[in-house]
Amino acid sequence: MRRLRLSPMTFEASTLWLLKRLTGIQVHWLYELRADATGNGNSHGGSTDVGYHQFRDVVAFDGLPEDQAQVIAGHTGRSPRRLLREGGRIHAMEMGGRIVSQLNVQFGAFDVSTPIPLRFSLPDDAFFVSFLYTPDAERGHGYAQALLRHACGALFREGYGRAYCHIRSTNIASRRAFRRAGWRPVGIIVATMSGRLVATPGTRRRGFGVTRLKPAAEPSGSGP
Ligand SMILES: CC(C)(COP(=O)(O)OP(=O)(O)OC[C@H]1O[C@@H](n2cnc3c(N)ncnc32)[C@H](O)[C@@H]1OP(=O)(O)O)[C@@H](O)C(=O)NCCC(=O)NCCS
Q: So where are the chain's domains?
């Protein structure tokens, strides 16, 4: 008879899902990757079919073929041009002409909409990864983790020392992709479904600021 095997991450995610259903409390993990804990950032077996893009400004983004630009723009959470104008970046992985994974990078202080409208403030040597996305048909091939390794490697070589992201506790695929790319959980953001920020253990110790945005403010960033 086959036994059902539950990984610790799946068990924990199921428990937190139940907690959310019963109490309205939702948990996001803060994950960290430190430059000194990584290799050189090169990845995906050196396949010649793979290309990596890094967009730092609108001019570079506007040089993309229209179909690729549209795919990316559909999953940046807001206008990619606005993100770039505000100092953010977009990284994408291309394979055989298809965009197979993408992510946003932000610096300094910025607003996010999940789990509730919040303002995040990063230390000067840090950057934040959000909107990691792989199209349905491309999932499960390691593209997200390869892109994470490549993008973070490039930023670490520029001199940044650490990277952060926040992930909904029940998002197992995302948590596995980040873990596989070397990231580790270092803090928790606890909020209620009704919009109250309850606690942020582990965040302040790292100089990572989390404050509740006033309800009237318009959040502009960051996905699940
Ligand atoms: C999260 C996401 C980017 C992962 O993309 P991907 O290219 O498939 O990721 P990878 O293949 O690099 O890694 C996914 C890992 O999760 C695992 N996984 C995928 N779906 C899973 C599921 N439903 N349950 C458990 N594990 C799962 C894969 O097996 C892989 O782990 P492994 O390498 O240990 O086998 C993709 O699922 C996605 O775009 N989701 C929607 C957007 C989203 O949630 N983004 C994250 C925001 S923080």
A: 24-212
CA angle 200, 203, 207 (to 5 degrees): 140
pTM across the whole model: 0.91
Q: Is 77 in the pocket of ligand 1 (CB under 6 A)?
A: no
Q: How many CB atoms lie within 10 A of CB 40?
A: 10
What lies within 8 Å, CB to CB, of 138 at 6+ separation is 95, 98, 100, 101
Tens digits of per-residue pLDDT, 12-34?
888 888 888 888 899 999 999 99
**CA 167–ligand 1 middle distance (angstroms):** 12
Residue nearest to atom 19 of ligand 1 (CA): 173
Residue 207 CB coordination number (10 Å) = 13
Ligand 1 in reach of 104 Cβ (< 6 A) = no
Q: What gap in Å lies between CA 210 and CA 28, rounded to an integer? A: 12
Residues 89/54, Cβ–Cβ less than 8 Å: yes
Strand order in the sheet with 184-192: 50-55, 89-95, 98-106, 126-133, 162-168, 25-34, 184-192, 197-199
What gap in Å lies between CA 58 and CA 76, rounded to an integer? Answer: 14
- For domain 24-212, the CATH superfamily is Gcn5-related N-acetyltransferase (GNAT) (3.40.630.30)
The gap from C-alpha 15 to its chain's centroid, in whole angstroms, comes to 23
